[in-house]
Amino acid sequence: MARLTSGERSIGGRVAIITGAASGMGRATAHLFADEGAKVAVVDLGAERVEAVVDEITGAGGTAQGWVLDVSEQAGVLRVVAEIRDALGPIDILVNNAGIALPAPFEPVGEVYLDAWNRTLDVDLTAHVLLIQACLADLQRNGDGRVVNIASTEGLGATAANSPYVAAKHGVIGLTRGLAVELGRTGVTFNCICPGPIRTGMTAAISDDAKAKFARRRVPLRRYGEPEEVAHMTLSLVLPAASFTNGVVVPVDGGMTAQNT
Ligand code: NAD
Questions:
Q1: Which ligand 1 atom is at minimum distance from the Cα of 123?
Q2: Exposed, middle or buried, 200 (CB in 10 Å: 0-12/13-18/19+)?
Q3: What is the pTM (predicted TM-score) of this model?
Q4: Which of 17, 29, 44 to mutate to test the pocket of ligand 1 (most atoms within 8 A of CB)?
Q5: To test ligand 1's pocket by mutation, which of 202, 211, 224 has the most ligand atoms within 8 angstroms of CB?
Q6: Distance CA 164, CA 146 (A)
Q7: Which of 85, 176, 204, 217 would bridge with 192, disulfide CB 3.0–4.6 Å?
Q8: What residues line ligand 1, using a CB cutoff of 6 Å?
């Protein structure tokens, strides 16, 4: 193989959809991709939150437009992906990042657990399928599309009272591997990141003290991660030069899953 060119190490001009981009890791990824010259579709719930991130990016000289979407709604996904294609061009990169974590102790009877199960599976797993379906023809057109799914270390192990999230994130890993194997011949790559504890909206309610205690006990780097540290790995996986990386599951967790507790 010839030496890599700067073009192969760049996402400049590529069209990237990032779901859940109004907060946390999605927002950090949207910023980083725009800084690297991508045309970014900022997709999330809440018009003001979406517009705020679009303004931040465009204010810094980047290219971004916003779409308000509940990623679990199929008709909305199809409509928004068509609008993004019209506005920015065919999709080159899809980052399935939007997610929810609902506390869900298991219940032998009752609807609370089942409601949490259904909503979590809809948003954290089925929505990935809907987005991939809507983007696939675009991703395949040049034989170099990129999909990164954001799973979790809860896709590799489990915390109690969290089984819908654990199941969904294990499912994200399975979906990633299944499509990497099935669709690899088209040149599109499917990879997955498993963040450990990261400072985002999802963990904002955990006190600094509790975060520090957890990190001392469980994380070899002795701290929570920052959203930008995950965004950097996502960028690596979507570069044109990442063309032989397919079906991998990458923990970004400060060494948490490497450590025997
Ligand atoms: P966050 O809450 O800061 O961001 C998640 C974003 O997803 C929010 O802006 C939210 O509005 C959006 N979202 C939720 N439901 C949606 C829906 N139905 N449609 C569209 N958007 C929706 O949290 P985060 O930590 O940045 O989460 C990003 C991803 O990382 C999630 O998939 C989460 O499960 C995963 N994750 C987070 C951690 C962590 O410690 N923070 C660890 C492992 C994995």
A1: 18
A2: buried
A3: 0.99
A4: 44
A5: 202
A6: 27
A7: 176
A8: 19-20, 22-26, 44-45, 69-72, 97-101, 123, 150, 152, 195, 197-198, 200-203
Is residue 69 within 8 A of residue 43, CB to CB? The reply is: yes
> What would the two tokens of residue 166 be?
């654990």
Tens digits of pLDDT across the chain (261 residues): 789 999 899 999 999 999 999 999 999 999 999 999 999 999 999 999 999 999 999 999 999 999 999 999 999 999 999 999 999 999 999 999 999 999 999 999 989 999 999 999 999 999 999 999 999 999 999 999 999 999 999 999 999 999 999 999 999 999 999 999 999 999 999 999 999 999 999 999 999 999 999 999 999 999 999 999 999 999 999 999 999 999 999 999 999 999 997
Given a contact cutoff of 8 angstroms between Cβ atoms, the answer to whether 11 and 239 are in contact is yes
Q: Could you tell me the fold of the domain covering 15-254? A: Rossmann fold (3.40.50)
